[in-house]
């Protein structure tokens, strides 16, 4: 390939590159001017692009670092708010208060239903997974655990020993335990309505 032919190919490639840069720059005239004005050869254009890629990579890394720091800070603030909620709930419980009005808002204690805690997903029978993924259905696991807990509570409340034993046996046959999952103790939380 002659030098003239190679130079023609490079010039054509530079022109194509300039057009592509205009396409990605859109209305950012500064970017177009900074990147391609005065750059005449393909090598110069590529050199400018290499610098821009390095700059963009550094900006992206800094943005990710900043986003990670913001997320960590948000998580810390959220955890701090949860601790304060727990302190308020505990103080209201100890003080025998169900509801209190303050200048900042109204606080009401309310019961929280027990939540499903997955201790070992691999032990949970496949019947509790949604098809086709399979995806674990915590709703179905929760329904089964709650039904079993209710049946066992009712059975153990029976006064007669023989009747109680029969009811517990029936509850064990009817409502199976779900290996790898359990119910939390539930508890209370608070709702804050600010003014």
Commentary on this structure:
The chain folds into 2 domains: 3-71, no CATH class; 98-194, no CATH class. Helix content is 60%, strand content 15%. It has helices spanning 3-25, 29-36, 42-94, 138-156, 161-174; strands at residues 99-101, 105-112, 116-118, 129-130, 135-136, 181-183, 187-194. A 3-stranded antiparallel sheet has the order 1-2-7, covered by helices on one side. Strands 3-6 form a two-stranded antiparallel sheet. It has a two-stranded antiparallel sheet with strand order 4-5. β4 and β5 form a beta hairpin. It is elongated.
The first-to-last residue Cα distance is 79 Å
Radius of gyration: 33 Å
Helix content: 55-70%
- Helix count from the secondary structure assignment: 5
The class by helix and strand makeup works out as alpha+beta
> β content, as a range?
5-15%
Low-pLDDT runs of 5+ residues are none
**Can you tell me the number of structural domains?**
2
- Overall outline: elongated
Multimeric organization: single chain
Instruction: Give helix and strand order, one letter per element, not per position.
Output: HHHEEEEEHHEE
How many strands appear in the DSSP assignment? 7
- What profile does the largest beta sheet have? 3 strands, antiparallel
Average pLDDT value? 84
Q: Strand order of the main beta sheet, please?
A: 1-2-7
């Amino acid at each position: 390939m002659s030098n003239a032919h190679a130079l023609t190919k490079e010039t054509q490639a530079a022109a194509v590159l300039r057009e592509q840069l205009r396409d990605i720059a859109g209305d950012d005239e500064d970017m177009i001017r900074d990147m391609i004005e005065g750059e005449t050869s393909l090598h110069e254009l590529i050199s400018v692009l290499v610098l821009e890629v390095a700059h963009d990579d550094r900006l992206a890394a800094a943005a990710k670092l900043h986003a990670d720091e913001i997320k960590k800070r948000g998580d810390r603030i959220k955890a701090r708010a949860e601790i304060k909620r727990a302190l308020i709930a505990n103080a209201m419980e100890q003080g025998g208060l169900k509801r209190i009005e303050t200048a900042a808002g109204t606080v009401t204690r309310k019961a929280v239903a027990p939540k499903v805690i997955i201790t070992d997903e691999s032990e949970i029978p496949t019947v509790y997974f949604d098809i086709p993924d399979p995806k674990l259905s915590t709703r179905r696991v929760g329904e089964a655990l709650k039904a079993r807990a209710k049946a066992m509570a009712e059975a153990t409340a029976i006064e007669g020993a023989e009747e109680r034993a029969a009811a517990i046996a029936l509850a064990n046959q009817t409502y199976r335990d779900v290996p790898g999952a359990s119910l939390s103790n539930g508890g209370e939380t608070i709702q804050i309505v600010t003014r």
